[in-house]
């Protein structure tokens, strides 16, 4: 085992990061060391790269970025029993306490004492990463490393889509960024009858078609509420998935959902969002779900089985693969919103 490795390190406040030679981490008693085969860029990583207000309040440089990955276990701690050297794994990124009320009542994904891999700990934009053994998820061998690396955000998408069933339902996916595209693919794999995807970017709307959207709407060119009503004979859609974090999209989603329909919100908003709660939620008897992360580990099994079975296909949504040393190219593509999922391959 080498003593040093290459890693993408946030070395200071401000935009950017550096590729550096750093020590290879060593696992503790209940941890495992994983050689990273593929690691994908998340919006969170891009925020850290940009150094927005959230990153400035949370990240303490020097810090190895990244949290979505797949790889091979190369060393295990003394007290690890269920994971072995050679296992092909990805990682649940929520590091939870196991003893708070939420953890003890089936909601560990919203643990009161949660730490996040790659945010509160060093991450996966590196040749090796240490993770708690309890967070390791064994991957089926027939899932390629680049696909296995995106299971964490795919879990977010799946939880958003499947918090209630979608088979036979009409579904609007508002926002066709990477996770919105994954949500479209999950809705298609799980039997949605009609999928309508929206965005401002023609590039991403084209990807939405590949993901399984029946209709795409460029919201810069037409009113999405009017178009949805036309497509549903004035009824509105059964399910709205708000993935964009745009206040106007949330308001439009509540207008286009049918009475007694469902709205799932994964998008994050930078400020308070005024809503007509009385008319658009209460009088319409709309069920609104706020979605954080994914169910531990129920959603992981759902996603893994859908991928392994071939029912869920996401290859077209991984639009770019770069070497780890080319990480800046991926960040720049995300700047321009000219990508789906971007995967980095360590040496």
**Any idea of the CATH class of the largest domain?**
Alpha Beta
String of helices and strands: EEEHHEEEEHEEEHHEHEHEHEHEHEHEHE
Morphology: globular
Could you tell me the mean pLDDT? 97
- Terminal CA distance reads 15 Å
Task: Give unreliable regions as ranges.
Answer: none
The structure class reads alpha/beta
Q: What is the CATH topology of the largest domain?
A: Quinone Oxidoreductase, Chain A, domain 1
Structure description:
The chain is α/β, with parallel strands linked by helices and 347 residues long. It has 2 domains: 179 residues, Quinone Oxidoreductase, Chain A, domain 1; 134 residues, 3-Layer(aba) Sandwich (Rossmann fold), CATH 3.40.50. The protein is built from 12 helices and 18 strands. Strands 3, 5, 6, 9, 10, 17 and 18 form a 7-stranded mixed beta sheet that branches. β14, α9 and β15 form a beta-alpha-beta unit. The chain is globular, with a radius of gyration of 20 Å. The chain starts with a strand and ends with a strand.
